[in-house]
Amino acid sequence: QVQLQESGPGLVKPSQTLSLTCTVSGGSITTSYYAWSWIRQPPGKGLEWMGVIAYDGSTYYSPSLKSRTSISRDTSKNQFSLQLSSVTPEDTAVYYCARAPSLTLGVDDEYDYWGQGTQVTVSS
User: How far is CA 110 from the centre of its chain?
Assistant: First the structure.
């Protein structure tokens, strides 16, 4: 059974960098052809796909967030991480990590495992 768990600060100040980590158990993040995404949901809004790191380490980002987003991984810890720079209160959301069986650029029903989500609030 694959499990994903998000971790990181719940409160970030404006202009700072938001950093989250997703720890994966029950499966390797390097197994072909899985893809590992970050998705968020602002209060009262729908899910927003942010970016993905594939099994081979390649990364893809949402065009609207690309300039501020970086996704990396630590294969020795079976973790992948999100960094979102220059945050504003509009970045307040529940942040999820999720797995898809193949490369998926967006939010759809391809995701088979999700983390429980972590609330991040951007406020001074």
Answer: 16
Q: What is the DSSP letter of 30?
A: T
CA angle 3, 5, 38 (to 5 degrees): 100
Task: Enter the tokens of residue 32.
Answer: 């072909």
Q: How many CA atoms lie within 13 A of 73 on its CB side?
A: 24
Note the pLDDT of residue 107: 87
Residue from 97, 99, 100 nearest 117 by CA: 97
The kind and range of the H/E element at 22 are: strand 18-25
**First CA to last CA distance, the chain:** 39
Instruction: List pLDDT tens digits, range 53-94.
Output: 999 999 999 999 999 999 999 999 999 999 999 999 999 999
pLDDT digits (tens, 9 = 90+) for 5-41: 999 999 999 999 999 999 999 999 999 999 999 999 9
